[in-house]
């Protein structure tokens, strides 16, 4: 009977050890796994910064930066875009709405005007002279921001957000 007790003891020890290893392994894998919580960061933001010298920060995925030159785009213009590597569209940025609404946080310094969409409302938020300004725009009408606004004496604008509804 001593052999039977020994066998049961070894099987119990192996099961206990194997169980402990499985639990420890599961905890290690769970600890190493990244979070699945969406932070809405803009994919490729580093490339946009390197190529165009503007920050595309985060959004809901329904407003994306695209190449200018097609109809139906939201257009933004800025001055002092000497570091912008896109020679053809230097200082001119375009965004496409992929749904009925959309939101995108950006940082585009020295913005002076934008052009909206015909079928939807486009609102922008900009910082001008340390004050937050909200503007609405429509297609085929360039709307001034900061120095290009109808009011004299305004400084340069930093475009902070574009919203489509």
UniProtKB/TrEMBL annotation:
Source taxon at top rank: Bacteria
Protein name per UniProt: Secreted protein
Taxonomic source organism: Saccharothrix espanaensis (strain ATCC 51144 / DSM 44229 / JCM 9112 / NBRC 15066 / NRRL 15764)
């Amino acid at each position: 009977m001593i052999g039977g007790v020994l066998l049961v003891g070894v099987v119990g020890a192996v099961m206990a050890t194997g169980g402990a290893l499985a639990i420890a392994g599961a905890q290690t894998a769970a600890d190493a796994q990244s979070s699945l919580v969406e932070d809405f960061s803009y994919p490729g933001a580093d490339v946009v910064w390197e190529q165009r010298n503007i920050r595309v920060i985060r959004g809901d995925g329904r407003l994306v930066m695209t190449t200018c030159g097609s109809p139906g785009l939201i257009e933004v213009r800025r001055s002092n875009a000497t570091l912008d590597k896109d020679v053809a569209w230097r200082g001119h940025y375009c965004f496409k709405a992929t749904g009925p609404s959309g939101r995108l946080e950006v940082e585009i310094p020295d913005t002076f005007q934008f052009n909206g969409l015909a079928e939807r409302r486009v609102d922008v938020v900009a910082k001008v002279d340390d004050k937050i300004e909200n503007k609405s725009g429509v297609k085929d009408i360039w709307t001034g921001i900061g120095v290009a606004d109808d009011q004299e004496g305004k400084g340069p604008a930093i475009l902070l957000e574009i919203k489509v509804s």
